[in-house]
Amino acid sequence: MDLKHIRNFSIIAHIDHGKSTLADRMLEITHTVEARKMRDQVLDSMELERERGITIKMQPVRMEYTTHLTPNPSPGRRGGSFSPQEKAGDEVYILNLIDTPGHVDFSYEVSRALKAVEGSILLVDSTQGVQAQTLTTLAMARLPRSGNGRGEGASVIIPVLSKIDSPLARVSEVKEEVVKLLNCDPNEVLLVSGRTGEGVENLLKEVIKRVPAPIENYKNENKSENVLSALVFDFKYSNHKGVIVFVRLFDGKVRRGDSLLFAVSGEKFTALEVGTFSPEETPRDSLSAGDTGYIVTGIKKPGIASVGDTITKSANPLPALPGYMQPMPVVWASVFPEDADDFALLKLSLGKLKLSDSSFSFEEESSGSLGRGFRCGFLGMLHLEIITERLKREFNLNLVITTPSIVYEVEYNTNVGNRLIGDLPKRQKIYSPYFFPDDSNIKTIFEPWVNAKIITPVEYLGNIMQILFDHEAEVGETENFGDNRSSISVKMPLRELMRNFFDELKSTSSGYGSISYNIAENREADVTRLDVLVADEPVPAFSKVVSKKRVEIEAEESVVKLESLLPRQMFTLKIQGKAFGRIISSRTLSGMKKDVTAHMYGGDITRKMKLREKQKKGKKKMKERGKVNIPQDVFLKMMRSGEN
């Protein structure tokens, strides 16, 4: 198809602003999905996405839309307006949509999608208004698009208000917020309802008008048949087909059987199949410049395909397109198999998950008490939960997951009490709380801080200031934002942001507050390691690094929570919190009791006394030698704040 009849666009928004519902209506109007196969959240294919009602993975889909358009040479519209010479009539357009996640943990997914499109629908909930994550995604969309190698400007932004059918909709006020944010004409803001479908067809027509058609770099060259430049924006793994790469073609054409090359890794392969998403994978004869689709590589070796690589013809390789920055993990946690024999399966499972989610990282580590496992880096707490839950569901693994932590940089003392510490490095990064050194060996600790922006209704400001104080935040400027709302600039330790701050903000603001953040500089930290002991043995998975000001509170909370979660054992045991070399908090979990004399009746009392004495000795021996079995769900619940 001619490039002028292709549009590539994405939907970006804050979480729960109606992206998936809007995409459903688009699929209905374009008849991409048959009515009998239609369901809510069609593009959310993962069970977890449908269960939680959120988008976790971006999902591309190709739609064909036939429209009757009249020439519209409106000034000020980029690339997508119609010239007076174009004739009105029925025209078929290919609309390549990429639905993106809205949660701040999955911003990397959004950034990848934006490089594969020329325009974006900025969706704002008319009942909630502009949220903090809306600002973050908008900032990414405004970055120059260098993915096509031409260094062109930012994506075209189409502002859209959703949920206009809701009785709580504040259309005029929220429209004013969007106009102020984008500095655009109020008439450019479109109104839609994903539930009823109102305004969605008009939105599709506006996408055709406003979003520019793709441009091919090598269009005028004679060797265009032997040219290919395709950006890999995602990929997945199939046991039968190997790695399947999701690509946006910027130049040339690819057919089944073509000999191709990964420009960065240098690996050659043959295209076993090419196709598009409808939304399931649909094989086609070829893909051309401007298309979004997939290529089956047949490669089953790990580490070959990577997000941001360029696929080109092996006979005529083109330079690699500018790719993506590597995501920086924010939260770290160690994952160990409950059964040591499952280590190989865990390694294989993590490798497969890495092929469908390139934003998390893992490397092997070992612990004296937990055995061999992996230290994993995640983009946030929700990302951590999703990955661990997928390991459990998709690969049927029982796991031990350590308490999440951030990266600390520790500067050691060169000597302690006239004793030279020769085996310690001068400065070291600590990823796991269990390996955090004793206070006596530490000279200085550095931790990452974040720059955050909070948007909230004015009436909740007082309560939010209190939780900011509790989380050691530095409050910057506060400004009015739209109708009766304020925007607060904040700096705070990443450690405190991950300490249940998101949930506390939502609770304090009755669900109306929102936050986005980015990593800033490192600062000195006043923290220490807190260990949790069960039956006098430290459990590495429960160790964490906490503020010295809160160590007693954290110790008490951890011990009480574990006491409520841990099943009773055959013997009485203690659960203790330890820091600064001493026990700070303690609870006793009584053992199970059995009446060993229940079967006896009558007779001499000394018979019962002998049995009870024997039981007492057995309990004492069990306490000395017995091992406490901690179920998998206890580790998961200890990881999640506020869950019992």
Structure keywords:
644 residues, alpha+beta, Rossmann fold, Alpha-Beta Plaits, 5 domains, 14 helices, 32 strands, globular, GTPase activity, GTP binding
Low-confidence stretches: 71-88, 147-151, 416-421
- Any idea how many domains? 5
**What is the 3D form?**
globular
Q: Which structural class matches the secondary elements?
A: alpha+beta
Number of helices, counting only DSSP H or I runs of 4 residues or more:
14
Radius of gyration: 29 Å
Amino-to-carboxy terminus distance: 57 Å
CATH superfamily of the largest domain: P-loop containing nucleotide triphosphate hydrolases
What is the arithmetic mean of pLDDT? 82
**Strand elements, count:** 32
CATH class of the largest domain: Alpha Beta
Reported for the largest beta sheet, the result is: 9 strands, antiparallel
How much of the polypeptide forms β-strand, as a percent range?
A: 25-35%
* CATH 2nd-level architecture of the largest domain: 3-Layer(aba) Sandwich
Which quaternary structure do these chains form? single chain
Helical content stands at 10-25%
> Do you know the CATH topology of the largest domain?
Rossmann fold
Binding site for GTP: 16-21, 162-165
Domain Tr-type G: 4-215
Pfam families: EFG_C, GTP_EFTU, GTP_EFTU_D2, LepA_C
GO biological process, one term: positive regulation of translation
Give a description of the structure.
The structure is a single chain. The chain has 644 residues and is of the alpha+beta class. It has 5 domains: 3-210, 3-Layer(aba) Sandwich (Rossmann fold), CATH 3.40.50.300; 224-313, Elongation Factor Tu (Ef-tu), domain 3; 331-401, Alpha-Beta Plaits (2-Layer Sandwich), CATH 3.30.70; 410-430 and 437-525, Alpha-Beta Plaits (2-Layer Sandwich); 528-639, Alpha-Beta Plaits (2-Layer Sandwich), CATH 3.30.70.2570. It is built from 14 helices and 32 strands. The strands form 6 sheets. Strands 7, 8, 9, 10, 11, 12, 13, 14 and 15 form a 9-stranded antiparallel β-sheet that branches. The chain has a 6-stranded mixed β-sheet with strand order 2-3-1-4-5-6, with helices on both faces. A hairpin with a 3-residue loop joins strand 17 and strand 18. Helix 3 (107-114) runs parallel beside helix 4 and helix 7 packs across helix 8. The two termini are 57 Å apart.
